Hints:
The chain is an alpha+beta fold. It folds into 2 domains: about 1-110, CATH 2.40.50.140; about 130-248, no CATH class. About 40% of the residues lie in helices and about 20% in strands. It has 9 helices and 7 strands, in the order E-E-E-E-E-H-H-H-H-E-E-H-H-H-H-H.
Amino acid sequence: MSEVVHSKSIFLHATKTGESSLVLHTIDRNFGRQSLYLRNAKKSKNSAALSHFFSLNILDTVITAPTKGSMYYLKEFDNEVKLHSIRSDIYKNSIAIYIGELLYRTYQEESGDADFFDWLCQEIITFESLESNFANYHLIFTLEYCKKLGFAPIDNYSEENCIFEINSAKFISEREVNLNENNLYFSKANSLLLHEICSNTFLTNLSIPLCGFERYNFTTELIKYIGFHLEYNLNIKSLNVLHEVLAN
């Protein structure tokens, strides 16, 4: 008999399989990164339920583990919390899609990490609660996520050490940059912004005046930083869409 488990999951991405079924890519509180099989998801009687599957939605789930194979089946699901603005606001939804793709491509922990899951839930709920001035949120989240992955930048910024070196995860002098030209670096402007975000409060970081290109450029370098330390090329396709949305 299949094991039935009550759990909580954060939705990241869906892949169509067959004519009407879906594989839902999630982060589960008990089981970590999981792919959940939803049979007949696109049948008429289930079509309304598809509204639950938007980026970063937190779901209360009942899943079953088959006796054969490794994929869990999603048996029952409902919203754990109401995330109305993340679902309906085009700006918030675009940020959520970016964060969802970032997690989808980088978070591979296949055993439950309750502390990480609870942190991520709190981040999502905080994001939902922001009524305005949230265009910098994905910068702050990406940097905090680096810390959770285990390679937090060392904030040793000074007038002399003003360039962030990706390889060593710390700030170095321009003279050292010239001696190590093959290493990877943030631009001088993005190095300063990294220092500011590391040292400011959350609310102060939300209020840093940045144009769309500055946000895009900084996030691109953060993604390069994550990819370097995960040891693979990281391509977050939704970042370009997010840049276009926030530029409007």
